[in-house]
Structures are given as structure tokens and as C-alpha cells.
Design a protein that fits this description.
Number of strands: 5
Protein name: Glycerol-3-phosphate cytidylyltransferase
Distance between the termini: 78 Å
Low-confidence stretches: 1-17
Strand content: 15-25%
CATH superfamily: HUPs
InterPro entries: Archaeal_FAD_synthase, Cyt_trans-like, Rossmann-like_a/b/a_fold
Number of domains: 1
CATH topology: Rossmann fold
Number of helices: 7
Organism: Candidatus Deianiraea vastatrix
Pfam families: CTP_transf_like
Largest sheet: 5 strands, parallel
Radius of gyration: 19 Å
Keywords: Nucleotidyltransferase, Signal, Transferase
């Protein structure tokens, strides 16, 4: 009897240790800076597999009404070069977090910067049935692509 219990405990431990937690996050990642690095590092610290979506130029133009400084093909390559990103994919549907996204990536956690806090409440309701949690990580207030753009403008 004791052996059977210990075998069960070992198997439960073994399978829990081998369970992979998958996180999904996305962004523009224009003019890659320390704020981008901070969120990717923190996100990777929460999971075994970090999937990062990089917004295409068309998506950025549509929701921010501006074109990124760095073209999509270069931005996605930069993010692929970051050791915290395990999988890097084009993100063609900004703010479309739904069952399709879950079916595609099977993530356990959806991650966003806390500058978007509350924006995903509807998404949380949709993804709750899959057990997906939404986590807001601290936004690096000292640096952003917008601030870099402003600094460059001031130096002209």
C-alpha cells in the first residue's frame, strides 16, 4: 500500500514538473528598447514557452494611425533574436483575443503591460472557460517608442 501511494505521488510530481505553461503577449516593438526587454523578461519568468506576436505595419497603421519607424520584417527579426521569446509570430489581429487565438496557441496566460489595464475585461470573460488568465505586467514608464520619437524630433 505504501509503495502504491509513493508511486502515485512520484507520478503526480513527475507530470506536474513536465507540464508546460505557455504565455502569449504581443506588441509593435518599434525601436526596441529596455521597456520591451523588461516585459519580455518578466513574461518569460512566468512560463516555459513564451509566444510573442509582433504587430504588422498594417495593424499598427489601423489602430495607432501611424507607421512604425522600423518595418515589420526587421521588427520581427529583432524580437526573434531576444532570448526570452521562444516563438515569434506575426500579429495581424490586434486586440482580437478570443477562442481563435486560444485554439491557435493554447496559452495558459495572456500578458499585457499594465498601461492597458482593464482593456481586456471582455477577453477575460471569453477565455475564462479555457482557464486562461490575463496578467498585467508593469509598464516601464521611463522609456517608450513614443518618448524616443519625441527625443529625436527635439534634436532636429
Amino acid at each position: 500500500m505504501k509503495i502504491a501511494i509513493w508511486c502515485f505521488v512520484f507520478l503526480a510530481f513527475f507530470f506536474n514538473c513536465n507540464a508546460k505553461t505557455t504565455c502569449y503577449t504581443n506588441g509593435v516593438y518599434d525601436m526596441f528598447h529596455v521597456g520591451h526587454l523588461n516585459i519580455l523578461r518578466a513574461a518569460k519568468g512566468m512560463c516555459d514557452v513564451l509566444i510573442v506576436g509582433v504587430h504588422t505595419d498594417e495593424v499598427v497603421q489601423k489602430y495607432k494611425n501611424k507607421t512604425p519607424v522600423i518595418p515589420f520584417e526587421e521588427r520581427i527579426e529583432v524580437v526573434r533574436g531576444i532570448k526570452y521569446a521562444d516563438v515569434v509570430v506575426p500579429d495581424v489581429d490586434h486586440y482580437v483575443f478570443d477562442e481563435k487565438l486560444y485554439e491557435k496557441f493554447k496559452m495558459d496566460i495572456l500578458i499585457s503591460g499594465d498601461d492597458h489595464f482593464g482593456e481586456y475585461d471582455d477577453v477575460a470573460k471569453k477565455l475564462k472557460k479555457y482557464g486562461v488568465k490575463i496578467v498585467y505586467l508593469p509598464y516601464t514608464k521611463s522609456q517608450s517608442s513614443t518618448k524616443i520619437r519625441q527625443k529625436l524630433k527635439e534634436q532636429k
